[in-house]
Design goal:
This protein is mostly helical and about 130 residues long. The chain has 5 helices and no strands.
């Protein structure tokens, strides 16, 4: 029963990736980008390839040992996953390498309320 549930969950993830690749992005026209550099865009074909690869792996899991094409499905799924990762390599690199606040030299333990407080030892002017 566990392989069936795992295969169904994996198939739902694959279908979600395919839907995300094929559905158009909703762009807010009035939204102003606040980043220093532009965000790297996903490659829709690469995302669809990752979704199809995930569906192939899910089919192999659902087919168990009785399905004759499970080896072919695993090989095709692996190739599709690798192709999708290659097409989205710049997006993945941007997600992994771009560290945000750590890159700007800010300490993670700084709190905004501490920045607004007066320095110790000086009276507050009213």
């Amino acid at each position: 029963m566990i392989p069936v549930v795992l295969g169904i969950l994996l198939a739902l993830v694959g279908l979600g990736l395919l839907a995300d690749a094929w559905l158009p992005e909703k762009i807010n026209v009035y939204h102003r980008e606040r980043r220093r550099s532009a965000r790297e865009e996903r490659h829709p074909g690469g995302e669809a390839s990752i979704g199809l690869g995930t569906l192939c792996i899910a089919a192999a899991i659902l087919g168990r040992d009785g399905w004759s094409y499970s080896t072919v499905a695993v090989i095709a799924g692996t190739l599709l996953l690798l192709a999708g990762a290659w097409l989205n390599r710049r997006y993945f690199r941007d997600r992994i390498v771009n560290r945000g606040a750590l890159r700007r030299g800010e300490r993670p333990d700084d709190r905004s309320y501490e920045k607004d407080a007066p320095p110790p030892g000086r009276p507050r002017i009213r």
